[in-house]
Amino acid sequence: MRLWEGVLLASNLALVILLLIGRPSNTKRRTMWIAAGLSVGALAVHLTMEGYRFQLFASYLAAVLLLAAWGASRNRDSKGRRVFAKTVAICSLPLLLLSGAAAQLIPVFQLPGLPGPYAVGTEIVHAVDASREDLLASQPGTKRELIIQVWYPADDSAKGKRMPFIPDGRQQLAAFADRMNLPQVTLDYLRYVKSRSYEGAAVRREVAGYPLLILNHGYGTTRLLHVEQAESLASRGYVVASIDHTYGNMATVFPDDRVAEYRIDTDRFDESAAYRDQIGKEWANDILFTLAYMEQLSAGEGPNRNFAGVIDTTRVGVLGHSFGGAASYLASADDRIKAGIDMDGTLVGFEGGEALNKPFMWLSTLSTFEMYKKVLRLDESSGAKLDGFGSTPEKYEAMVKLAKAELKHIRELMERKGEMLVAEGAEHYNFTDAPRLSPLLPKTGMTGGMKADRSARLINDVVADFFDRHLKGEPAEAKLLQTYPELEDVKSQFLSESRGLE
């Protein structure tokens, strides 16, 4: 809860108490003057400096009612007015409690301090791949356009404007609200959240070149659910390019104010492996295009010279959440990519191909790993069935076959240079910034019981440790598993469970 929100709620609660208890006296009247003055002042300062948000609409109403009740109660000769004032106070109490709870449960959150030694800068880049037609664009022949947000170590003199957590303000939030079938006002409060990076800051140039990481959001989400993760990595000495995969995310806002909304055929995506492979290939090509684009920026080509000579494109890693992890794995077949991470994702486009022979980590939830084991232990002769696998017997059989082929491919990866960790207490969206949005999310199953701060530190430390080892040549963090007892290295267990796939 922000400062003046707290003052507003506290002053109005004081008015409620004063209106309900005690006999009229000079002391009480003076105290009510103070409480009423605080209420008016806090409301004015809050609306002017902090800005309104829908979670506090009930408290705004309560403030108006309580001030009217206070005015009525000042007439000592009117019993009716005093009764009115007490009635209003009683009715205002639940409004204040509702607002206080909403402000805490849907907070204007603040991100913690950066974990690395560097300040962080960020720039948003609009890039067009002239070599590709966009398969989801409404007009045939339209070239693939991307918005890429880049985070990087910034010069110590970096000051000035911090990038909003949600750039493009209400336009971006309106598109998000439309995608989630919510009134726009319910997301407006996110305008007030600040990131930890400085817009357009100069790159810190004390090293020969920073490794490049290409970060990919999940199916139907957005790069803006990975801001904390990207900033954390940049503060540790990486250039992080996070892609909004056009038409596969909540919404992409282009510099000319065009908005590209989500356009993947959800039914086909759920039912057709071939369609998922097609979308996965498109996203993998986005990654490879982004890599080529960052190579150009590092070479000093193009209008943006901030990145000239500071990106080491011989040390490139990819990572992604969910379907973004699948696309990251698919793109990792490119020799320029040295290592990668799939965060609670799957595979696409793997059939007929060899497993990667380079460092690649499967970082997932315990529930995902338990599903792997169920598939591996499935005995067709027992008649046991897996939940959620296909709506017809034919589709069920096809999905089980695909799942076993996928696990066989992952086994081959683990036999080479693969790594596999699971995080107990995490669920699918713990690998994003979603836990910051509300402590209610664990109730929905989107996130696990792990607290937002710990969840973010765990994921960010695991990711940094992996890329520090494989891109920077640094030794492993020996105490990582001791620091986070929720983490378990399950590679040996997976290899044992998957013996039957040989």
UniProtKB/TrEMBL annotation:
Signal peptide: none annotated. PANTHER family: PLATELET-ACTIVATING FACTOR ACETYLHYDROLASE. GO terms for molecular function: hydrolase activity. Coiled coil: none annotated. Pfam families: PAF-AH_p_II. The chain crosses the membrane at residues 6-22, 31-48, 54-72, 84-106. Keywords: Hydrolase, Lipid degradation, Lipid metabolism, Membrane, Transmembrane, Transmembrane helix. This is Alpha/beta hydrolase family protein. Gene3D superfamilies: alpha/beta hydrolase (3.40.50.1820). The keyword Transmembrane helix applies. InterPro entries: AB_hydrolase_fold (IPR029058).
